[in-house]
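User: Hey, my collaborator sent me this sequence without any context and asked if I could get a structure. I don't really work with proteins. Can you help?
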Amino acid sequence: MRHNHGEYGRGEVHTNTVEGFYSIFKRGMKGVYQHCSEKHLHRYLAEFDFRYSNRAAVGFGDGPRTDEALKGIVGKRLTYGGPARY
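Assistant: No problem. I've predicted the 3D structure and written it out in structure-token form, which is a compact way to encode the shape of the chain:
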């Protein structure tokens, strides 16, 4: 995009998309997590990608969003491995 030439979007892609995503990410990092190590950054980004892609503005209510989240646990196990080690 060339903002200096008045270009702010191409088709369905525009700067509002990334600004909206970053707004949700920043709000969550300041309000919920307060700290993010570089080691786990990809996990935080994946969570906020899910939140942004499945928000009410694109037609996801609580029920469909929950169904979509639960699809991610298929074939995975939760195990207790003792205290967390960072």
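In plain terms: The CA atoms of residues 21 and 54 lie 12 Å apart. You can pass these tokens on to your collaborator as they are.
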